Amino acid sequence: MSNAPTLEPDSQEPESDIEFTILKRGERNPRGPYQMEDLLQLMNDGEIGPNDLVFYDGIEEWKPIHEVFEVQEQIAHFVDDGQDTQRVGIAFREVSNVVGAGESIYYIAVQAKVGLLSKTKECVIITDRHLFLMTETRRGFELEAHPWSTVTNTLMRDEGKGLGTFSILLGTERRTDVTNIPLKQVHRLFQLSQEMKHGHVS
Fold first, then answer.
1. Mean pLDDT of the 64-83 span
2. Helices in 26-168 by DSSP H: which ranges?
3. Containing domain of residue 160, as a range?
């Protein structure tokens, strides 16, 4: 078990594009390399579990996944409300690349698919310091970051058919609406955003 493979680091920042190798309990041959969103998909599909082993450049030995990923429980609750797993993985990766040290991602809500013509898929990501909006563009993904100090208020509206709108008020004049989010996620966004604004994070 101590012959852990050595992986070439992908970037200067070990927290960003880390490549992970997985060794399932009871198997002899490691699998990988995987990106964070691949691991999320594998866990969601039941292909790997929290007790399987993981290795990446930066740790000295194989460790159970649950020990390495303190975020794993957080990621798991991101998909409790029916979010698109792949989209959550992408949002998690994009935001993880830009958040400051010690900043925690609390929730990721994903816009429901709204027909073939809707090319932009928006995610709303709540951290303890920012409210992020992620939009898919032809060039990749764009993040818009709003520190909580700039968020005047947040609102939610039931649009019917199990979907709702989450609105963000910035200052006195600017309002951004994110439509077509499943209601369960809208409620969670609203609850968390109110807690963040008032500094009571549960």
1. 68
2. 36-44, 65-68, 71-78, 85-96
3. 81-197
